[in-house]
Amino acid sequence: MRLIFIGPPGVGKGTQAKQICDQFGILHLSTGDILREEISQNSLIGQAAKRFIDKGELVPDKLLLDMMSIRLNQKDCKNGYCLDGFPRTIPQAEGLELILQNLQQSIDAVISIDADEKELIQRLVLRGQNSGRTDDTSDVVKQRLDVYRKQTAPLIEFYSKRNLLHSIDGLGEISEITQRILNSLS
Fold it and tell me: Does residue 88 carry a catalytic annotation?
């Protein structure tokens, strides 16, 4: 099974993606984790990505598409995966379609999780205080939500037109949300 998880920052995409990956025995691919690893290693990709992330902006499409093309071609992706945090723009989604075409693969479903914006801001600021993440301050969170609305939310229509979209309410207990996702996939 090949899945994509989309939704605004703080909605719980990562948490839910991990739950669903465990359920189906597929690989969890978080572009955020991949980028944070690049940043911690102070690689050229990491240095470039950090400049964008710290301002609440998205990492450029070409950088992410190149990174994901290499990653999706690795052997551990053959049995399925969940993309968490990618694609985030229409050009990324179109680029992903080309990558998958070349790999003779297709996406089975796109899970769109949503929640109230005030709740999301509270969650992210608290996460920032607890984890020390530099991109979880109130101002940066508001900027990231604005970027999401402008650049990522159009993916909902993009994948809806392809009959792949499953819309999920992201409020409630983790187990309740996981069950909503599983129900939508059955």
Answer: yes
